[in-house]
C-alpha cells in the first residue's frame, strides 16, 4: 500500500506544475529539441547536457521539493536522479553520446519511446480531475524523463553506454509499479520500457565494433 492515492498524486503534480510554471513548457520544448538534435551532427553533446539538467531538476524540485511530502523514499529517489544527471553530464562533456536519426529497429523504437514521453505522457493527465494542469512532462517529472532518456540512448550510433541506462530502466520499474498500485494501468506499461531498452542495448553492443 502507498500513503497516497492517484487523486492525491495528481493534485501534487498540479500544484508542482503551477509553482514552477513555465518550467514544464520550457522542458517540453527542450525535450523536443533533444530529439531534433539526433538530426544534427554532434548534437549528442547538447542532448546529453539537456537531459542531465532534466534529471537534476526532477530530482531536486520534484522528489525533494514536492514528492517528499508523500513518500519517505523521495530523498533516495532524488539521490539516484542526481547520480544519473552526473552520468549524462559526463557523457556530454566528454562527447560520448553520439546520437543520430534512427536507421534500424533499435533506433526506431528509441524514437517511439521519446515521442511517447514527450507527446503522449502529458496527455494522460486528462484522465484525472485536474486535466493538463497535472501533466507529467519530461524534464520536470520522473516517469517521462526516464522514458525520454531511454529513447535517446537507443538513438546512439554504435555502442551504447549501458551505464547511462541503469537508473532510467530501474525507474521505469518503480514508476510502473507505483502506477499499477494506484490503478493507472496505462502508466504501468512503462515497466516494459526499461527491460526492453536494456535488451536492445546489449544486442546493439554485441554487434557493434569496439
UniProtKB/TrEMBL annotation:
Cited Pfam families: DUF6064 (PF19540)
InterPro entries associated with the record: DUF6064 (IPR045708)
Keywords: Membrane, Transmembrane, Transmembrane helix
Coiled-coil region list: none
Transmembrane segments: 20-39, 46-68, 74-93, 105-124, 130-155, 162-180, 186-202
UniProt protein name: Uncharacterized protein
Domain of life, per lineage: Bacteria
Amino acid at each position: 500500500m502507498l500513503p497516497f492515492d492517484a487523486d492525491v498524486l495528481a493534485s501534487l503534480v498540479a500544484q508542482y506544475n503551477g509553482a514552477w510554471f513555465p518550467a514544464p513548457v520550457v522542458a517540453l520544448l527542450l525535450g523536443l529539441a533533444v530529439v531534433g538534435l539526433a538530426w544534427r551532427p554532434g548534437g549528442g553533446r547538447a542532448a546529453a547536457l539537456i537531459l542531465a539538467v532534466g534529471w537534476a531538476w526532477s530530482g531536486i524540485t520534484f522528489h525533494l521539493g514536492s514528492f517528499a511530502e508523500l513518500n519517505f523514499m523521495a530523498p533516495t529517489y532524488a539521490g539516484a536522479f542526481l547520480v544519473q544527471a552526473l552520468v549524462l553530464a559526463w557523457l556530454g562533456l566528454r562527447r560520448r553520446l553520439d546520437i543520430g536519426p534512427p536507421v534500424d529497429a533499435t533506433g526506431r523504437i528509441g524514437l517511439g519511446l521519446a515521442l511517447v514521453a514527450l507527446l503522449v505522457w502529458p496527455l494522460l493527465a486528462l484522465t484525472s480531475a485536474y486535466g493538463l494542469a497535472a501533466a507529467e512532462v519530461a524534464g520536470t517529472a520522473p516517469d517521462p524523463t526516464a522514458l525520454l532518456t531511454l529513447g535517446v540512448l537507443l538513438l546512439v550510433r554504435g555502442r551504447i553506454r549501458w551505464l547511462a541506462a541503469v537508473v532510467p530502466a530501474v525507474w521505469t520499474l518503480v514508476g510502473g509499479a507505483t502506477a499499477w498500485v494506484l490503478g493507472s494501468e496505462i502508466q504501468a506499461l512503462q515497466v516494459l520500457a526499461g527491460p526492453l531498452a536494456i535488451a536492445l542495448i546489449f544486442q546493439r553492443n554485441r554487434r557493434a565494433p569496439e
